[in-house]
Amino acid sequence: MGAMSVAVFFHAHPDDEALLTSGTMAKAAAAGHRVVLVVATDGALGLTSSEYGDPADLARTRLAEVQASADALGVARVVNLGYADSGLGPVTVRDGSGRTRFVDADVDVAAGELADILREENAGVFTSYDAAGGYGHPDHVQVHRVGARAAELTGIPVLEATVPRDLLVKGINLAAKFYRFPPEFDIDSYRRAYSAKEQITHRIDVRRQIPAKRASMRAHASQAAADGGADRTLAAFLRIPRPIYDLVFGREWYVDPRRSGPVRHDIFEDTTQEVRR
Ligand SMILES: [Zn+2]
C-alpha cells in the first residue's frame, strides 16, 4: 500500500456523490486514505414525494441520508457549506430559509470556504464537476466554478467528476427499454452534458465497490421517491439488472483540467502529498 493521502469530494447536493463518485470514495477509504465529503447545499428543493413535507423537513431528511451514504462509503467527515439549494425550476422558487442560494454565492467567498477545508484537511486531491456542470443544474455549474477557484487558491489539484456522454446516452437508452423514466427526465439534455470521451483523464475501476455504491444510492431514499408511483432517476438506476448496472456504474471518470495524455487509473497518481501523522 502506498502513502496515505486525503481526498475531498465536493458536491452540490446530498445524493450527487452516490451517482458520480461513490465508488472512488469507497475505494480510497478502503485503501486507507482519509475521505471527506463536502456538500454545498442541503438539497431542500430536491424532487421527491409530498410525504417528505416542506423544504425544511426535506433538508433534515437529506442531511441524514447523506450521512448514511457517507457511513456506507467509509467517509471520515461530512461538511455542509450551508448554502440554499437553488433548485432546477424557475429562479423565483426559494427554499424559505432566507440563506444565499448556491447559484448566487460569490465564487471567491464560496471557494475561500472550500479552500479553508482543503488546507485544514491537508488534502492531496479534491474533486468538483466538469465545466458543463454535468447535466447542467445551476448548482452543479457553480460547483465547477467554485472548485476551479479553490484549486487556484490552494494549488491543490482538482479532478472534475464527469461521465463520458456517449456511454451515458447508451446506458440511458438501454435502461429506457425496460423502465419508465420520470417525466422530467430529458434524454436530449444528456447529449450535450458531461464530457466527451477525449477529455477524460482518469478512469477509475470501481467494480469491487459496487455494493458500497448501491448502499450509497439506497441511502438517498427521498430521491428515489415520487408522487404517483413514477420512478425517480435514482430508483430507475437501482432497478437496472446487475450486469448492466455493473457495466454502467463500475467505472467513474474525471477530467484533470491541467493535463491530457494517457488515461490514469488512480486519483492519487499525481499527488505527492502525505498525511501528517
Ligand atoms: Zn445535484
UniProtKB/TrEMBL annotation:
<dbReference type="Pfam" id="PF02585">
    <property type="entry name" value="PIG-L"/>
</dbReference>
<keyword id="KW-0378">Hydrolase</keyword>
<keyword id="KW-0862">Zinc</keyword>
<dbReference type="GO" id="GO:0016787">
    <property type="term" value="F:hydrolase activity"/>
</dbReference>
<dbReference type="InterPro" id="IPR003737">
    <property type="entry name" value="GlcNAc_PI_deacetylase-related"/>
</dbReference>
<dbReference type="InterPro" id="IPR024078">
    <property type="entry name" value="LmbE-like_dom_sf"/>
</dbReference>
<protein>
    <submittedName>
        <fullName>PIG-L deacetylase family protein</fullName>
        <ecNumber>3.5.1.-</ecNumber>
    </submittedName>
</protein>
